[in-house]
Amino acid sequence: MISKNISLLKYNxxxxxxxxxxxxxxxxEQDLDLYFNEMPTNxxxxxxxxxxxxxxxxxxxxxxxxxxxxxxxxxxxxxxxKIKAGAGVNWNDFVDYSVDxxxxxxxxxxxxxxxxxASPVQNIGAYGQExxxxxxxxxxxxxxxxKHLTFLNADCKFSYRNSIFKQELKNKLIITSxxxxxxxxxxxxxxxxxxxxVLAEKQIxxxxxxxxxxxxIEIRNKKLPDYNSLSNCGSFFTNPFLNKIDFxxxxxxxxxxxxxxxxxxxxxxxxxxIEKCEWKGKRVGNVGCYKDHSLxxxxxxxxxxxxxxxxxxxxxxxxxxxxxxxxxxxxxxx
Length: 334
Ligand SMILES: Cc1cc2nc3c(=O)[nH]c(=O)nc-3n(C[C@H](O)[C@H](O)[C@H](O)COP(=O)(O)OP(=O)(O)OC[C@H]3O[C@@H](n4cnc5c(N)ncnc54)[C@H](O)[C@@H]3O)c2cc1C
Hints:
This protein is an alpha+beta fold. The chain has 7 helices and 20 strands. Strand 8 and strand 9 form a beta hairpin.
């Protein structure tokens, strides 16, 4: 059913109270054919859990909220299992299910908010895992051609917090299901000191996949604000990339800056750059930079999307002025 003039407040974790002209809850892939018989194909935003989206004004189109359910094992052998999950499945529930079954590949991505269908959009990642390494294919609906299509992993142009769905095909395709391949063996990644330290404190040198996932949950709960009590979208900015030449210039001036090699250059820590510009813990009106994590912009209550965006722009400008480095938004601005 298509509803009219709906508040999006409870549909975004940034706590922004804007209205959509139309709102459609998608529960079955087949409903898309019915929907597009009635509705225009332009001016659409696809919404999952609303944990990576900032609405800056009322939306004069239709929000399609993806709630396609279902998890199905479609094939397995002694080493791997192939699982198809509906795009509306809660991402954390899906990780939990895989950990319960001792299937590995996404355990480090536990507790990331949102849906299965949004996970490929920015190729979600945390603690050394990226979802792209487990995705075999996606079922999508092409809005302009009104066709159901299959995308293979190679078609998705995955890279760091990015994919074709966040770029040229943004809001042009609706991801309806994702097929993953997970492993039946588990090797803990102990290369992150924060993870290794907690496991060492607990005297668990060889964690099971459940013990490992629980450790990630513990760390995330300490580090990140709960969006149910303090509205936020997680990291607002991505870590900036510098090619080798620009990096050398930057590093000469900032030898204490953290960095890591990435493709043909280096990634800097956006959190470090923001902290150096003294934004951590700073508040302007109802918007602020979280006291324990400088990448997270929080809405203390009642902030508008415009105010949040203005705050993000101020951070971006001060990092540019001080370091000559351009930050990019991880959050999708509407
Ligand atoms: C506290 C917190 C911590 C976070 N930690 C991490 C982290 O560690 N790593 C990380 O990568 N991200 C993290 N995020 C960001 C966010 O949770 C992920 O990007 C997540 O995948 C977004 O899912 P969603 O369903 O909420 O997407 P939404 O916010 O609803 O949508 C995000 C984008 O994807 C598009 N989209 C959504 N569903 C579909 C679909 N079915 N088809 C086509 N397009 C679609 C939307 O149009 C929008 O552009 C965090 C967020 C929060 C609030």
